[in-house]
User: Which sequence fits this backbone?
DNA sequence: GGCAGCCGCGCG
DNA sequence: AAAGCGCGCGGCTGCC
């Protein structure tokens, strides 16, 4: 008999699976059975590990007692099914509100791996396990599913994050198992039907193997983390997992009718702009096509303008607005600008954005990825709620539901503060110790006036100077950046002068930059304050190398804060609903608003002190309350 | 039809 | 000598 029939011939209610069931189907005779399906069993069999499939409360209690006696961590995995009612939703089976928990797999080493079937067992039965140390791969996923189902694991490690600390990447379990264990573990059943009344033997073997692999991986990765002094990078992320799980599970409330109205407004503006554009470009140029716009420019500009027009790395004429605006008064600029604005809003923040509203919770549950970037920042997707337009009309759509308010707090100038701490520049540190604003100080240095004499314009220009020069920008780049980002007209000469004044004001920073570059050239890598290592291929590393410890240090501060958030907010009705690198957004019961502000500020200050114990925290954070993200800002 | 690279652009 | 960095997403384009 072939494996194809295994599913139907499987006994209806096995108390557990005997090892003898590993035998049977021998040679690969069945064409429709992927190679991987047999390998799950073979790996388990070769290691002498039997599957115990638990479907009765009595067996569950016995097994749990056994598992709780194991001193080391247990490998954990879960399988989830698409929730009834959402068979076709893209997040069904992934997002907890659209999923049901089917299996919990646990492996403590030794000869048995345990599968608890939650279609027949209440999850409460497993409660004693949630105080044990557990290891999962991409543990935030399992944590969310378990928390949503009513279980709260307290000590959860993650092999994805362990490997991330080692490599900087987010690698799947199968790839890690291949690399570190030499195991070929199948992934083809990941998306199989986990709500089937009878799970197939292949499914059970697949599920079991993940828990076994994850525990084996844990031991391998732990040794390597220790040897390479990267354990702290891992634990920083590990301790933020509970906050991230809560954040994703909470979601953020979004005003759908308000959004529809705004979208309608954008579409009207876009239609008008498209008409104006067509009068200039003619009917055959697609304004969405960089290539076509570029060719139009080539055909319509005079030779002198053409000669100085910016080009892309592939030699095409640039068609971004910054380039267009350099040739002031060009009739294309105004309508194209309006068209591009509205088109961007409609495509990214229009219908596509609203499609991420969860049908069950009516909230947006984005995905935040620990270790998602090469500096250690979080990445966010589906949708990315770290980059919604700052336009107040849009941010107001993130409004608190009735009876609740939004609390927002951000770190002021955190990257400059981290730069001061990492470089040890005496003047920068002195400024922060005195509670001074560094943009003002830089402005005074560049303009050659006292800090009290700095004009708003000078301070604005100093922002560009600070953020640009911090990461090794040249005079030309600075001039362009100041205009594009801060609306400050700066000549090349002025930019050069600002550059000299900046480094004269902060000689410690300049020395740090030089030392850093030298180190990167020598070693090919650079580390963040926690010790996260970023490796570079030969060539073009200059600004990335200068940026990594600073952006990374700021990211580490946020992670530290996240690990403190739950305890600081204890007793307050507050939900974490968004994180934007240096900003934390909570949704809070209206009567708890003020308390939440103070608690959040304290947590953020404590987070800073965790990573940088000597940091001066005057003016570091300020929290505010409002009915929406726009109002609380 | 799916996929990858390029480009532009939203945010910090 | 000179060099801002980090993301995700959508449209277009060329390729398979």
Assistant:
């Amino acid at each position: 008999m072939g494996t194809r029939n295994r599913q139907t011939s499987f006994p209806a209610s096995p108390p557990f699976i005997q090892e003898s069931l590993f035998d049977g189907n021998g040679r690969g005779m069945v064409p429709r059975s992927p190679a991987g399906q047999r390998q799950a069993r073979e790996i388990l069999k070769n290691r002498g590990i039997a599957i115990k499939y638990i479907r009765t409360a009595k067996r569950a209690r016995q097994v749990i007692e056994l598992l709780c006696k194991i001193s080391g961590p247990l490998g954990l995995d879960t399988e989830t099914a698409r929730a009834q009612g959402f068979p076709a939703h893209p997040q069904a089976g992934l997002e907890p509100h659209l999923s049901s928990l089917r299996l919990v797999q646990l492996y403590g080493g030794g000869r048995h791996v345990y599968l608890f079937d939650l279609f027949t067992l209440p999850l409460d039965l497993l409660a004693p396990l949630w105080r044990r140390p557990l290891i999962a791969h991409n543990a935030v996923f399992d944590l969310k599913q378990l928390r949503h189902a009513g279980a709260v694991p307290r000590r959860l490690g993650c092999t994805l994050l362990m490997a991330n600390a080692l490599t900087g990447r987010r690698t799947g379990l199968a790839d890690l198992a291949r690399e570190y264990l030499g195991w070929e573990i199948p992934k083809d059943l990941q998306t199989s039907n986990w709500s089937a009344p009878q799970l197939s033997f292949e499914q059970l073997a697949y599920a079991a193997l993940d828990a076994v692999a994850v525990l084996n991986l844990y031991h391998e990765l732990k040794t390597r983390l220790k040897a390479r002094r990267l354990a702290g990078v891992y634990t920083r992320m590990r301790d933020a997992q509970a906050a991230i799980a809560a954040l994703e599970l909470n979601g953020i409330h979004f005003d759908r009718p308000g959004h529809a109205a705004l979208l309608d407004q954008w579409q009207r503006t876009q239609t008008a702009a498209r008409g104006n554009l067509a009068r200039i470009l003619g009917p055959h140029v697609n304004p969405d096509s960089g290539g076509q716009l570029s060719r139009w420019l080539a055909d319509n500009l005079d030779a002198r303008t053409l000669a100085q027009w910016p080009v892309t790395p592939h030699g095409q004429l640039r068609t971004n607005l910054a380039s267009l605006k350099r040739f002031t008064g060009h009739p294309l600029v105004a309508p194209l600008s309006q068209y591009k604005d509205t088109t961007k809003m409609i495509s990214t923040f229009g219908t596509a954005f609203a499609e991420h509203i969860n049908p069950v919770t009516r909230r947006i549950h984005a995905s935040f990825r620990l270790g998602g970037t090469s500096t250690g920042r979080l990445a966010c997707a589906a949708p990315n709620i770290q980059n919604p337009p700052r336009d107040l009309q849009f941010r107001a759509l993130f409004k608190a539901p009735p009876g609740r308010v939004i609390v927002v707090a951000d770190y002021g100038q955190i990257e400059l503060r981290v730069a001061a701490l990492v470089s040890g520049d005496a003047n920068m540190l002195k400024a922060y110790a005195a509670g001074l604003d560094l943009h003002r100080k830089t402005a005074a240095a560049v303009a050659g006036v006292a800090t009290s004499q700095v004009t708003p314009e000078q301070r604005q220009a100093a922002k560009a100077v600070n953020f640009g020069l911090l990461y090794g920008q040249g005079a030309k780049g600075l001039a362009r950046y100041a205009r594009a980002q801060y609306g400050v007209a700066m000549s090349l000469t002025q930019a050069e002068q600002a550059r000299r004044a900046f480094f004269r004001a902060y000689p410690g920073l300049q020395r740090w930059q030089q030392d850093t570059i030298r180190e990167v050239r020598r070693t090919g890598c650079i580390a963040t304050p926690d010790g996260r290592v970023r490796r570079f291929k030969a060539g073009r590393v200059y600004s990335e190398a200068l940026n990594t410890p600073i952006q990374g240090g700021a990211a580490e501060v946020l992670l530290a804060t996240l690990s403190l958030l739950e305890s600081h907010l204890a007793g307050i009705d507050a939900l974490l609903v968004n994180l934007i690198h240096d900003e934390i957004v909570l949704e809070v019961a209206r009567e708890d608003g003020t308390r939440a502000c103070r608690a959040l500020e304290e947590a953020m200050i404590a987070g800073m002190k965790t990573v940088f114990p000597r940091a001066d925290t005057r003016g570091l954070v300020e929290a505010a309350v409002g009915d929406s993200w726009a109002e609380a800002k």
Q: What stands out?
A: The longest strand of chain A covers residues 74-82.
